[in-house]
Amino acid sequence: MLRVRFAPSPTGALHIGGARTALYNWLLARGRGGEIVLRIEDTDRERSTEENVRQIFEALEWLGIERDGEPVFQSQRAERHAEVVRQLLDAGRAYRSSAGPDDVKAFKEANANRGFRGRDEGEGAVRLRVPDEGVTTVVDVVRGSTPFENALQDDLVIARADGSPVYHLAVVVDDADAGITHVVRGADHYSNTPKHVLIQQAMGVGTPVYAHLPLLHGPDGKKLSKRHGAASVQELRDAGYLPEAVRNYLALLGWGYDEDTTFFTTEQLQQLFSLERVSKSPAVFDEQKLRWINGRYVRELPVADLTARLEALLGRTGLGDAVAVTQEKISTLDEFWPLARAFFEDPVDDPAAREKFLDPEAGAEALTVARDALERVPEPWGTETVEAALREAVERSGRKAKAIFQPLRVALTGTTISPGIFETVALIGRERALARIDSALDGRRVS
Ligand code: GLU
């Protein structure tokens, strides 16, 4: 059975690269009837705070990426790591040496084209004994097979002088013990892989299938960072993206099914995802593209579903009608409130809009035309009757529709951007609409 793992080091919010790694592992497990293990690599006790661990759980939960079984905490496996180190020492596959970085450097100066080889001194850090002959071949689904000459590899440190294991040893032992069949991780770990294979060989355990995912760049071709906008899952959530849209977009960062399909449901991703279609070249994270994808997901949600999400986010109830008239206009959840605010609160004050559209002449004249029309809208008051009355008034006035509607919009909402003007008027209601027009006409501001 396929078994994969997501093995984050809890150093803070879950970054987009880490989220993509988690997603690919999860898609692979779900699509192939396998399992995904969550392993928290918390051996760096200073950075692995409880809060940082919580952030990883929270981000995965929001993304809808569930693990199988209980999470493994690497720090709790120290005994087992020490046991393997002892076994490697006993079997002569490792030795203790006091050689430090200066000794390694001196060795390499004296021995051109050779990896460091130390002497067994019976004390000091534990180094793996790397064979002098042969090659270690890293087989990677994304990058193909690459032979690494053993003679060039250093006898690497697998445990410090105090006995604590280093990352390379811990990761190999934990993967082996968990029965991991596929290691899918970021390209930054590729150069570690020959070391991991050497440790596996010394331990006498099998080597999993490796797949190293391409680096993520921003649209400017530079390594992805905060400069490029939202950098973590938490920031994407707070910016009002939907988890299903984020899953769709993250899946495309290094993978594609064909040239031109952009939209995949999560079920489709689970069925179609394969490591063979993961690309080697860096993928570009472009928040504008995510926003565009998200907009389509937002527009396709049933109104009741979108309403429930917005009510949860904003801590309000009764948003249904406002959602119905804004849904077409928003790409992210946080674009909702600026458009819908005028249905619940007094108009905002935007002096630029006021000066441009509510001047005492043309602006006041437009508002008078609109006011007369709204006063006479027949029952039942609604988008259709409002539209008919306003259109007729525009026609009679001989002015352009925009010359009436923009001042009206500013009077009702305070801003130049709102949902459709007829829907906006209808939802604000006759009484409030007339009161807002009146206060705009005499420069007062009431609801
Ligand atoms: N803990 C490592 C990281 O967060 C990942 C190790 C691995 O996937 O092998 O980068």
Structural topology:
Elements: E1 3-6, H1 16-31, E2 35-40, H2 50-63, E3 72-73, H3 78-90, E4 94-97, H4 101-110, E5 125-128, E6 135-140, E7 144-149, E8 157-159, H5 167-177, E9 182-186, H6 193-203, E10 209-213, E11 216-217, H7 233-238, H8 243-251, H9 266-272, E12 283-284, H10 287-300, H11 303-314, H12 320-326, H13 336-340, H14 351-357, H15 362-375, H16 383-397, H17 401-413, H18 421-428, H19 430-441
Parallel strand pairs: 1-2, 2-3, 9-10, 11-12
Antiparallel strand pairs: 4-5, 5-8, 6-7
Helix pairs in contact: 1-9, 3-5, 5-6, 8-10, 15-16, 15-17, 15-19, 16-18, 17-18
User: Span from first to last CA?
Assistant: 65 Å
What's the count of strands? 12
The total of helices stands at 19
How large, in whole angstroms, is the Cα Rg? Answer: 31 Å
How do the strands of the widest beta sheet line up side by side? Answer: 1-2-3
**Helix/strand/pairing category:** mainly alpha
Listed once per kind, the bound small molecules are: glutamic acid
Strand content: 5-15%
Helix share, percent: 40-55%
Largest sheet: 3 strands, parallel
Which regions have little confidence, pLDDT < 50, spanning 5+ residues? none
Basic shape: elongated
Q: Give the mean pLDDT.
A: 96
Structure in words:
The protein has 447 residues and is mostly helical. It is built from 19 helices and twelve strands. It has helices at 16-31, 50-63, 78-90, 101-110, 167-177, 193-203, 233-238, 243-251, 266-272, 287-300, 303-314, 320-326, 336-340, 351-357, 362-375, 383-397, 401-413, 421-428, 430-441, and strands at residues 3-6, 35-40, 72-73, 94-97, 125-128, 135-140, 144-149, 157-159, 182-186, 209-213, 216-217, 283-284. The strands form five sheets. The protein has a three-stranded parallel sheet. It has a three-stranded antiparallel sheet with strand order 4-5-8. The model has no long low-confidence stretch (mean pLDDT 96). Glutamic acid binds next to loops.
